[in-house]
Amino acid sequence: MSGTINKKHIKTQSTYAFESNTSNVAASQMRNALNKLADSVQGDEEERARFEAQLDSFFSLFRRYLVEKSSGNTLDWEKIKSPNPDEVVAYETIAQQPENVTNLSKLAVLKLNGGLGTSMGCVGPKSVIEVRDGNTFLDLSVRQIEHLNRQYDSDVPLLLMNSFNTDKDTEHLIKKYSANRIRIRSFNQSKFPRVYKDSMLPVPTDYEDKLDAWYPPGHGDLFEALHASGELDALIAQGREILFVSNGDNLGATVDLKILDHMLQTGSEYIMELTDKTRADVKGGTLINYDGQVRLLEVAQVPKEHIDEFKNIRKFKNFNTNNLWINLKAIKRLIESSSLEVEIIPNKKTIVRGGHEVNVLQLETACGAAIRHFNGAHGVVVPRSRFLPVKTCSDLLLVKSDLFYLQHGALKLDPERFGPNPLIKLGSHFKKVSDFSSRISHIPKIVELDHLTITGNVFLGKDVTLRGTVIIVCSEGQKIDIPNGSVLENVVITGNLQILEH
């Protein structure tokens, strides 16, 4: 492997001479370290070539990070404008068109399946957490596509982008669908080395180094991973034109024929589904017009003095659901011309080395940020029902509740429900799925609930009904049991502080 440092974007003013030189040195040291890392591969030639290609991709990302850091690349807030009317379209304007079922032959569906359930206290892929009636996220995704294929006599394939963390478990799990009416393919996203924050050198020194020395570089890696795996060319050879991408934990992200038809009619290469912001989504990325180009603005890019303005739901009304519709040939064109550079997200982590916590960096990208590279790209503002992610046990309570019913693998809102989904905040006692399940072993009825906050050592009984605003706060050292059959409506329940003897 060899690499040269691209200096054309580095400022040459004397003010930045030191920073530029430092960047060049860091890039050179990284290149040498990556060469040694590549030499540590003991496998066959194919395995080594694949690993070298990933290290090359990582080095390009790392070098670009250094250049942008030294040049102080930031957005000019004054240039940020609301999108033009043709850059953000209301779903209602496209929903009136008749559906063209034959377009399903041009579609493939991809679920981002690289995440672990560690934030919810689970071991293994997040997609295997039980969500509803004994079904996991993966089960429901399969049921959705299987029903679609049966209903329209189509053959829409399902792809899973795994990470090195989820690959083995997922491969084992999808064997049970071999008799189902669905073609499932999986491939791995890249495996990049974490970087020590102080030395800016890679954490791993060997191909077989510990798992915590590596990281999957975010879902922005989708494009390169799809191309490198051969799945991109295979889909194009099958006549597939559009890839519908969504997070594996978003149960609202079903195939929508109206959006598919709209994309093919307009010739757009990229459509991002947006939905209206609420108080719970103020940090969500939003589409903007910047220098006459549609772009995704993330909270991390916003200067501190403009954060409140960014969170203002009157100014920035919509946010990115990460339901994306992307033209496959456009992906191939942009990858093969090396034109798909997206904003880098430096993610700070800590790992343990020699009994001490050490600060490391992992450089990630998001596939939503790629929107500015595609022709005719725009957003479609969809109903909130298409955004039902499960990031926490608070979200899990929502999707397990009577607020929704299950239909062919998709969650449908109870027609009795009026208004937006309730805001649910469960405290740290409910962070892990196991704790959540023991404390709320029977999901309460919440069709008429607006807001729920529970903190502390609280247990809910059977057949509990929650309405309006319910706040349950248990003081430290206390315990609150909500009895079976309780109906709580617009109440605040607190436990008195108990002085524990020592």
TrEMBL record:
It comes from the Eukaryota. InterPro entries: Nucleotide-diphossugar_trans, UDPGP_fam, UDPGP_trans. It catalyses: alpha-D-glucose 1-phosphate + UTP + H(+) = UDP-alpha-D-glucose + diphosphate. The keyword Phosphoprotein does not apply. CDD domains: UGPase_euk. Substrate binds at H219. Belongs to the UDPGP type 1 family. Plays a central role as a glucosyl donor in cellular metabolic pathways. This is UTP--glucose-1-phosphate uridylyltransferase. The gene is NCAS0A12570.
